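User: Here's a structure from my thesis project, written as structure tokens. My advisor, Dr. K., wants to see whether a designed sequence matches the one we expressed. Can you design one independently, without my sequence as a hint?
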């Protein structure tokens, strides 16, 4: 099987990959359903509270005040429940995602745990809404679930103490979170492939890379093409062997700088956006 075929068989591709339109539609549908449930629950609660005092207070059996139509007036105005808009709900999720990064950084957890926790949060809130599942109650259980998935092995009691939460606050929502994740806990991170790409580029810079069959070029030719890329110093095309050798350390420094920048972006910016839903790990 090719790498593409392996990825297409993963749950990340089959269940958590979307087009921008499909992703927006899914979120809109989830939010609309949650808003409807919140509104219905609010009305039901109000009806239960007001029912015992309905008789004798000028309210007929249909729930309308005397002298007013059952379909209008003040009665309907009270039915309105103001919920968060879709944009506001997404902003709330994004805010708690940033808080999750802060908590993981405070705990000094590996990047893989942090990245997995963020994807769990964002995946969960595709089928759930902050209107019905407040992120403040979901964030800590989700991070602990990522801790277990990534085999970081921090005990529940240690985590509860550091996260300032009780055991029940961490364990109680775990099944709901797992259900929202469709019990698919594997996350394919671009972070895992980045060090390999970094080492491969260093080998290309040295001219010692092992070239795969079918590339049609030697390691030296690939090195020349890499050194010919635009940069602050002169290009390697047409340079002598001594000049090329002298430029190799400069090229390696550029590769290292790019690696650091990419690693930082993947540990922060990428985790706070929808790139995991829209692109494959190699594209990210």
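Assistant: Designed independently from the structure alone:
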């Amino acid at each position: 099987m090719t790498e593409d075929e392996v990825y297409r068989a993963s749950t990340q591709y089959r269940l958590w990959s979307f087009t921008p339109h499909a992703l927006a539609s899914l979120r809109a549908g989830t939010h609309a359903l949650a808003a409807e449930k919140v509104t219905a629950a609010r009305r039901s609660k109000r009806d239960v509270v007001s029912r015992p005092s309905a008789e004798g207070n000028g309210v007929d059996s249909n729930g309308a005040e005397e002298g007013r139509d059952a379909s209008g007036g003040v009665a309907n105005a009270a039915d309105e429940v103001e919920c968060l808009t879709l944009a506001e709900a997404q902003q709330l999720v994004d805010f708690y995602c940033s808080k999750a990064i802060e908590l993981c950084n405070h705990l000094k957890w590996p990047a893989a745990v942090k990245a997995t926790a963020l994807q769990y949060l964002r995946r969960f809130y595709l089928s759930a809404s902050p209107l019905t599942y407040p992120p403040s109650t979901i964030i800590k259980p989700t991070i602990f679930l990522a801790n277990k998935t990534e085999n970081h092995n921090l005990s529940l009691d240690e985590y509860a103490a550091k996260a300032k939460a009780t055991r029940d606050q961490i364990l109680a929502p775990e099944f709901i979170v797992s259900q929202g994740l469709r019990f698919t806990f594997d996350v394919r991170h671009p972070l895992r492939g980045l060090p390999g790409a970094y080492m491969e580029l260093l080998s290309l810079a040295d001219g010692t890379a092992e070239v795969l069959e079918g590339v049609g070029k030697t390691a030296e030719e690939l090195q020349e093409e890499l050194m010919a890329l635009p940069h602050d110093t002169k290009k390697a095309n047409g340079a002598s062997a001594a000049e090329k050798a002298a430029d190799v350390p400069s090229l390696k420094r550029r590769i290292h700088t790019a690696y650091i920048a990419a690693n930082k972006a993947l540990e922060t910016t990428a985790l706070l956006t929808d790139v995991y839903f829209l692109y494959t790990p190699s594209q990210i």
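When you compare it with your expressed construct, this may help: The CA atoms of residues 119 and 271 lie 7 Å apart.
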